[in-house]
């Protein structure tokens, strides 16, 4: 495999990093949060559930950033091969 072919393969791999999954999951959680509020109103139970959802959303943000970092590192490796 040539360096050019390796770079192309790396670009394809970078596109396979599942960055969208984390963001879609966060969106689903935000929808759940709104539904909980709609069902329970401003109650202590709703507040507790919303706190758990917010914590999960923060963790998803961290996962999304880590996945984006993986994608960028693979892309950087592809560029490095092309400049080689």
TrEMBL record:
It comes from the Bacteria. This is Uncharacterized protein.
